[in-house]
Amino acid sequence: VLALCASASTNPAPTHFQFLRIQLTTWLMHVYNISPCFQELGIAVTHSNIEAICGSDVVFVAVKPHLVPLVLNEISQHVTDRHIIVSVAAGVTLATLEELLPENSVVIRLMPNLPCVVQEGALLFTRGSHAKQEDGALLRSLLHHCGLVEEGPEAWIDIHTGVSGSGVAFVYLFAEALAEGAVKMGMPSALAHSIASQTVLGAGRLLRDSGKHPAQLRSEVCTPGGTTIYGLHTLEQGGLRASTMSAVESATERARELGRKSAAGSRK
Ligand SMILES: NC(=O)c1ccc[n+]([C@@H]2O[C@H](COP(=O)([O-])OP(=O)(O)OC[C@H]3O[C@@H](n4cnc5c(N)ncnc54)[C@H](OP(=O)(O)O)[C@@H]3O)[C@@H](O)[C@H]2O)c1
To answer: Domain Pyrroline-5-carboxylate reductase catalytic N-terminal spans what residues (predicted)?
Structure first.
């Protein structure tokens, strides 16, 4: 699908989810720890996109971006003012979504990231011109199980893609390099990788839970003349900070470029 619809206005519980076609993307499957036995959970399952639209209030559109026009054209005449259409399609703008749907449709653009699968995602959404604050609140209440859910202007969606969608891969690269450093120094690979991943996890949790600025936490680890400041100096010499900032910039620019291409494509 289109992935899933929820009769959320009556009951946001997972058993009220209905699926257009039962092709949940991985991140959605983990929202409520839903196992593949959807029917056993009392979830209505259908292969018809139209049937799902007619029985739902909140509709998640999770097809590949180039299929969004096809699917929205299919469901468009069944979309009414009770529906909230939520798109996760990368690069498909609110303007494009609103153009493909009936006038005054309530549309929200949402950008999740991979750690939603372990309920530690970072999600940013932006409301279309007819989506009210309470529509955003409803979305938050449905998705807070995925992780951090924030709202912002549409211009931030591409930045979110750079810092968080792609940022996940940047962190993996760093974790891999940490482990390889340990292997170089003589630690067995499996142990090095598990210690590196735990280090990234622990550092991330402490950063989030303490609410402290990363520079403050970093300085707390630095004993004068100690090991950490020597290592940090080496990282600065390698330009880690500058190249990370440039990586976020490149990924954001690429998201913007793909968005422009997708808007041009949907107008054809
Ligand atoms: N994966 C991520 O981490 C992530 C993050 C942010 C945003 N997104 C966005 O999420 C969307 C899905 O990405 P994905 O990687 O999850 O793709 P995917 O695995 O290919 O999932 C897309 C699903 O849509 C189904 N589908 C195709 N045509 C359909 C139709 N006409 N009606 C109903 N369902 C249809 C497909 O089913 P069949 O296989 O049966 O055709 C498939 O299950 C994309 O727009 C992407 O930009 C993904």
So the answer is: 36-91
Tell the residue nearest (CA) to atom 6 of ligand 1: 112
Domain range 167-250, its CATH number among 3.30.360.10, 1.10.10.10, 3.20.20.140, 1.10.3730.10: 1.10.3730.10
- Between CA 167 and CA 124 the distance in angstroms is 14
Q: What is the pLDDT of residue 35?
A: 54
Nearest CA, atom 13, ligand 1? 64
102 is in an annotated binding site: no
Structural contact between residues 66 and 91, judged by C-beta atoms closer than 8 angstroms:
no
**Residue-wise pLDDT tens digits, 101-138:** 999 999 999 999 999 999 999 999 999 999 999 999 99
Phi–psi pair at 161, nearest 5 degrees: -60, -40
pTM: 0.84
Q: Is the dihedral of CA 80, 8, 2, 260 positive or negative?
A: positive
**Pocket lined around ligand 1, Cβ cut-off 6 Å:** 1-2, 20-21, 23, 25, 27, 49, 62-65, 67, 70-71, 88-90, 111-112, 114, 165
Q: What is the CA radius of gyration of the chain?
A: 21
Distance 29 CA to ligand 1 centre (A): 13
Q: Provide the pLDDT for residue 259.
A: 81
* Domain ranges, ordered by start, for the chain: 4-154, 167-250
